[in-house]
Design goal:
- This protein has helices spanning about 5-10, 20-50, 55-80, 85-100.
- By secondary structure, it is an all-alpha fold.
- The mean pLDDT is about 95.
């Protein structure tokens, strides 16, 4: 499945619209909330399991990452963006940074 195919399928599970500023804000907060759940699960693996990742942990992390992806897909759509285009642009940006020797560093526009 491509990112764009996923994005179209994600839209079929959206409740209500995504065009209002309130809807876009809820989607953006959803990205942050679900990313926080990924981080929290990872923290618990580190803190309570000495960093030992089980197959159950991987399955749970994958579910939360899927939730992040869903929110990103719908938020992107609400802004007129396609996930495939975002992925291509990000890959090109990182390749450029690597070529220029600035993959590590500070600032978005390096």
């Amino acid at each position: 499945m491509t990112f764009d195919e996923y994005q179209q399928k994600a839209l079929t599970t959206m409740l209500g619209g995504h065009d209002s500023m309130v809807a876009k804000t809820i989607l953006a907060l959803g990205v942050a909330g679900e990313a926080g759940e990924v981080a929290d699960k990872w923290k618990k693996i580190l803190a309570y399991q000495n960093g030992e990742v089980t197959s159950d942990d991987v399955a749970e992390l994958a579910k939360e990452m899927g939730d992040v992806l869903w929110y990103l897909a719908v938020l992107a759509e609400s802004l007129g963006l396609k996930l495939g285009d975002i992925a291509k642009a990000n890959n090109a940006k990182l390749a450029s940074r690597q070529t220029r020797g600035v993959i590590r560093g500070r600032g978005d526009n390096r």
